[in-house]
Specification:
The structure is a single chain. The chain is of the alpha+beta class. Helix content is 31%, strand content 27%. It has two domains: 49 residues; 141 residues, no CATH class. The protein is built from five helices and ten strands. Helix 1 packs antiparallel against helix 2. The N and C termini lie far apart (62 Å).
Length: 201
């Protein structure tokens, strides 16, 4: 397509030069110039359609890098180079949409898990369970909307979040397991049709 278009453009330019040398009336020259303009415009439009479109986040790592600053004491470089260092036990499982970023005495651990929605986009779950009484537990849910993460926790949870319980995000499957401090399973949060359903143990 590109080569044929280029050849056509060269042909037009050549014809314009010949008409100018032969003294062809200006109206014919105008026809040639219009034809050349249409040819170039057509090629430009074709090139635009072939350009890759800007895309949003696609992997669990992409979403992790978009998390609000409130989750971090670490700076942006440390969030990737330090917190996601596999030597520290970090897990970045892109295939299964699961990420674990360990912290330290100042930075809380962070778990991120993706749940696929019916429209092909993802619900992003962000979690930490404080088992040692050092940090505050949290379980938040987001969707990516117009370049940013939007909190949708209240619209997807069938029961209220309780800080004294532990919420295990799944690396495999799409069920969040909820236990008490002693480890006894209380119920599951099963991902079904864009919301979680409560399933008692």
């Amino acid at each position: 397509m590109r080569q044929s278009q280029l050849a056509l453009n060269i042909w037009f330019v050549t014809r314009v030069r010949l008409t100018m040398k032969k003294g062809v009336p200006s109206r014919f020259l105008s026809f040639f110039l219009v034809g050349l303009f249409i040819s170039v415009a057509s090629y430009a439009m074709h090139a635009q359609t072939k350009m890759p479109k800007a895309t949003g986040p696609r992997t669990v790592l992409d979403y992790y890098t978009l998390l609000p600053d409130k989750y971090f004491e670490a700076n942006r470089e440390q969030r990737v180079n330090w917190m996601l260092d596999p030597k520290r036990g970090a897990i970045v499982d892109v295939k299964n949409g699961y990420l674990y970023a360990p912290g330290d005495g100042a930075q809380t651990d962070i778990y991120v898990c993706l749940f696929k929605r019916s429209d092909g986009t993802y619900l992003i779950a962000v979690n930490y369970d404080d088992k040692n009484g050092v940090f505050e537990s949290f379980l938040d849910f987001y969707v990516y909307h117009h370049g940013r993460l939007r909190d949708v926790g209240k619209s997807v949870m069938p029961v209220a979040f309780k800080k004294r319980l532990h919420y295990g995000l799944p690396r495999y499957g799409s069920t969040i397991t909820v236990t008490n401090k002693s480890g006894k399973k209380l119920y599951d949060l099963v991902w079904v049709r864009n919301v979680f359903r409560l399933k008692r143990a």
